[in-house]
Amino acid sequence: MTPPLQGPRPVTPDPRRVLSIQSHVVSGYVGGKAAVFPMQLLGWDVDVVNTVNFSNHSGYGRFGGPRTDASDLATIFSYLEQNGLLQPSRVLTGYIPNAKSLEVIADVIRKLKTRHPEIIYLLDPVMGDAGKLYVSPDVVPLYRALLSCATVITPNYFEVEVLTGVALTSADNLREALDKLHTGFGVPHVVVSSIPLSAALRASVPFPPGTFSADDDLLLCVCSSRRGEGKEGASSDVYAFGIAQIPGYFSGVGDLFSALVLAHFDGDGSLGKATGLAVGTVHRILRDTAAHSAEGATESTDSELDAADVERRVRRMRRRELRVIQNAGVIASCTEAVEGVLWAGFWT
Amino acid sequence: MTPPLQGPRPVTPDPRRVLSIQSHVVSGYVGGKAAVFPMQLLGWDVDVVNTVNFSNHSGYGRFGGPRTDASDLATIFSYLEQNGLLQPSRVLTGYIPNAKSLEVIADVIRKLKTRHPEIIYLLDPVMGDAGKLYVSPDVVPLYRALLSCATVITPNYFEVEVLTGVALTSADNLREALDKLHTGFGVPHVVVSSIPLSAALRASVPFPPGTFSADDDLLLCVCSSRRGEGKEGASSDVYAFGIAQIPGYFSGVGDLFSALVLAHFDGDGSLGKATGLAVGTVHRILRDTAAHSAEGATESTDSELDAADVERRVRRMRRRELRVIQNAGVIASCTEAVEGVLWAGFWT
């Protein structure tokens, strides 16, 4: 394997450059295809490392294409380093298919952070969703070990559970999990992108009266910024966002969300604003995608019907590709920000 | 090798979808990195097939990363087809590193065009520049054979010479080459992206008096649309664009140019307008890149000095990466169109 990062040049980070490391699909909008264009639109030079080059996302059932193996990744980073091109001020990692690749990438990130501790690293620990792991299990301890390098992490509720061992069913659990992430793993900024809003959890969130009705089908997004040393009292500032559920499953939502959080994040104190912009923009794109996918089609997510007719699932997947390109104006305008609710008594 | 295109579904082309097949670099703006973002900005869903995944462009001298081999390309196309995702209304091909890959890609394009003859295919026969071939020589006959599928081609002067065997030193030569491309190879629309403007050639182009002074260092861009059957007289409509040379060599210019021609092309009669938009937009980005690369740096293109100091060339390459992201507004606004000169007496 080519040894990465042995070049002679400690370059100055480029203030508007993101190193993005995640999957690539030819068609559709997941991984880098969901993340790169929005960051570019928002003015970021994005260096794009493709961990796989697949035809389409795995939700279609049928997909294929080459994975970039660990030694190829090491070669790519080695040449970037030799040419003084490894100069991001921000790093974004998403789907990485196996432990060997993650080891190479983690090595690069540790060296970059050692060289320039001010680099903002958003780690999206893409491991699974809805109770199912979709990476190799040996990836999990590597992500745990890498958390100390991260500035921001954006797990979904299942990934929080995998990382911390705490099931997010109540405010107490959420507090325990966030404490583990901030204090145990040393992550300054945590965004839990989506948590199913159980009745117990819902009763705890201080949404102003009348914001949502009891019947609303909601997801909860929570962001939490650890307080700096020397600050007394609560161990983090927590904001909650209630998100109206949109029926059906859409792929790439987390990848788009993480890219927008990173693009809008502006250092300590800005996580609530960045999260609100990401939540609002993603929701607007989801609403548009859902409306568009429903035109002339009424096939719902139904695994029994899917099993009986493979093409049924494929048709639905095609219609549910995120309408990222059509919403370029929405992304660039930054007009869809959602206000979070400060969760004042969270830590008491 | 997975057989491509055996799926059961003759899908309807998506009117705003481009299938783009070319190189990918992690850092910098050549190949897909120069082409995809501009097309997305202009509202195109782009399906992105990466023929290579390199760290950076070859002009740095040091570069590496995996090539997508022919069987991987066939696998990707096969899954796209099976999932009904091979539905572009436009196709763009650029750098393809070897004959085996080009064979797979040519096979896909032929089948797409057979299925939907109205598909607009822009073939940029990326083979070399300034007298030097930078692909395997066995690629050349494959490109010649594929020309009959192309709607538009965007060779530089050297690639015209390689395809037709005619050196572009005079208006007579240019006429001979264009006739071969239109009549011999059956290409309806030809854009020769850049021709060094010899004194002989310059004297022939009907630039209005006073447009350029005799000392101006110019390149010539020529676009030529074959007249439909039944039209009498000249065999094509030819427009000429004089382009002020910008000192130094910039990589990715042709890739950006071809993407813009395709994004703006609107069928027969629109080539002059699309070419003018592409010429003007690219030139504006080049001027900005040149101005930016000159800040605090005076190292010119000099192969002797480069040979003595490898890092000198690398520094220059980094500074000369096209400022595509920073010029998103220029690309999207379409305000930089340049007017071509109708070359009235070209065929007589």
CATH secondary-structure class of chain A: Alpha Beta
Secondary-structure element order of chain A, as H and E? EHEHEHEEEHEHHEHEEHHHHHE
Low-confidence stretches of chain A: none
Strand content bin of chain A: 15-25%
Provide the spatial order of strands within the biggest beta sheet of chain A: 2-1-3-4-7-8-9-10-11
Largest sheet of chain A: 9 strands, mixed
Largest interface: A-B, 46 and 46 residues
Rounded Rg of chain A: 20 Å
Count of discrete structural domains of chain A: 1
Structural class by helix and strand composition of chain A: alpha/beta
Measure the end-to-end span of chain A. Answer: 51 Å
Q: Which assembly state applies to the chains in this document?
A: homodimer
Output the CATH homologous superfamily of chain A. Answer: Ribokinase
Global outline of chain A: globular
CATH topology of chain A: UDP-N-acetylmuramoyl-L-alanine:D-glutamate ligase
- Give the integer mean of the pLDDT values of chain A: 92
* CATH architecture field of chain A: 3-Layer(aba) Sandwich
Helix content of chain A: 25-40%
- What's the total number of strands of chain A? 11
How many helices of chain A in DSSP terms? 12
From the structure above, extract its key features:
homodimer, 348 residues, alpha/beta, UDP-N-acetylmuramoyl-L-alanine:D-glutamate ligase, nine-stranded mixed sheet, 11 strands, 19% strand, globular, ATP-binding (chains A, B), pyridoxal kinase activity (chains A, B)
